Amino acid sequence: MTISDRVRIKDVRVLSDNWTPLKTTTFEYRRADGAWQTQHRETYERDNAAAVLPYNLARRTVILVRQFRLPAFIRGYDDLLIEAAAGVLDNASPEERIRAEAEEETGYRLHHVHKVFEAFMSPGAVTEKLHFFVAEYEPEMRVSDGGGLEHEGEDIEVLELSIDEALAMIADGRIIDAKAIMLLQYVALHVFR
Question: At which positions is Mg(2+) bound (predicted)?
Fold first, then answer.
């Protein structure tokens, strides 16, 4: 039996569509014991996205970005968030989009990006799946100051940190962005051995 055999969608309503659609869904779910249970869930219908962590093996450095995030602020985080560069795919392939996003946010034109995994970041409420990449960079690959796109409300600071400092920032709570944590742990295990 597949999951499709265990789910019957009964009703879907759009609650809001200002930034991304927020929907409420009523469905029946066949439990492990065979009984059907009616459930209600709200989901944000987010497009898929991609994130990248540029690294320089010889210098043992990584590129991260720092920016304001309203949801983190609302939850009481009174600082800018340090993150991996990322963006919504906007009908592009993950590889195309992450190269463009890296250049917009960090100012680095990355030549070769390597996909390392995919993950749902908040599968209980958000439909978005993230494609995770790493990419080698060299100082001469910087073609601009980065900073993001002003018309999208971006005001991004570019950070070049040693891998050791970035990992210490996870440990002491200065880096709390899941994308950054996952990619930093990946490069610590597989690149900076």
Answer: 86, 101, 105, 154
Q: pTM for the complete prediction?
A: 0.94
What are the CA-CA distances from residue 144 to residues 63, 100, 105, 140 (Å)?
Answer: 14, 12, 9, 11
SS3 state of residue 16:
strand
Domain range summary for the chain, segments of one domain joined by +: 3-44, 49-191
- Annotated ligand binding at 28? The verdict is no
Topology of domain 49-191 in CATH is Nucleoside Triphosphate Pyrophosphohydrolase (3.90.79)
Q: Is there a binding annotation on residue 166?
A: no
Is 150 part of any known ligand binding site?
A: no
CA dist 82 and 103 (Å) reads: 17
Please indicate if the annotation marks 165 as binding a ligand. Answer: no
